[in-house]
Amino acid sequence: TGDISVAKISANNGMANDGGLAGYFSGSVFDSYATGDVEILPEGEGVNTTATSVNSIGGLIGNYSSADSEQKISNVFAEGAVTGGYKLGGLIGYVSSSRGFYISNSYALGDVSSVYAANSDNVYVGGLIGVVGETGVGSQNKSGEVVIENVYAYGDVTAINGGSVGGLIGYISTYQTPSGVYQSGSITNAHAYGDVYVTYIDSTGAYDVGGLIGTMRGIDLSNSSASGDVYGFSHVGGLVGTAVYSTISDSYATGAASSVENKLNYGSAGLVANMNQSTVYNSYYNADVNDSGY
User: Fold this and answer.
1) What is the distance in angstroms between the CA of the first residue and the CA of the last residue of the chain?
2) Alpha helices per DSSP H over 215-269
3) Spatial separation of the C-alpha atoms in residues 272 and 285, rounded to whole Å
4) What is the pLDDT of residues 89-137, one digit of tens each?
5) Phi-psi category of 194—alpha, beta or left, where left has phi over 0 and alpha has psi -120 to 50?
6) Residue 78 to residues 60, 64, 169, 259: CA-CA distances in angstroms?
7) How many helices (H) does the chain have, and how many strands (E)?
């Protein structure tokens, strides 16, 4: 327990892999917790303070990698605010596993904030986890099967001009074969309670913002919800910002989704803003505060 605060680094050097329990960890984690704020705020003349220079920061673990498919995370939690730049999560900042990922019965309580303007299209911030799997064109094949169940995040999530931001998970992708087929991945009984707000600076950022998930690829999402308001530039969804080769069932969002530009690049929607080869079943949104579901 206790706060972690780092306020200075040398010029042009970044900071990575900081967590309330462990900065980097590979293996199973059971019945563990961390309480206290994790705040990584480089400052000083000549210091690199772009979002990507302060990355992989989590309330429990900064960077997590499972060495094999049998390793799991269960019955863990983190309580406290997380502040940094890139790949931030209330529980885990970055899941960089090439062997898949399993987590159950876990949660995070506290606000998650990226306080530096993103110098790339995405910033990857989530109330529970910032990133699950590798990101970028041609790199999805580095992540394996994903199973996430019985998890939640309670707290607001904010960022500046960066995409893939969600109340629970910023970005998640399963294994993609050379032919473009995604391996199975599932998220069940997952919930986010808090607003998601991405400040818009220019049209290169603030895309793929969701009350629960910012961007998801190859995921079956079920029995899940988001209750907060969501704001960004475009691709802003009450539940999911962008869904690719995914399904959504028996899930809902109750907050208002709004965007700077409602006519460009899918704007905003009460449930899912941008769907690519994806489907929705038996799910709903709040029609009183949103013009459309998707």
Assistant:
1) 42
2) none
3) 9
4) 999 999 986 567 899 999 999 999 998 776 557 889 999 999 998 655 4
5) left
6) 6, 15, 15, 31
7) 0, 35
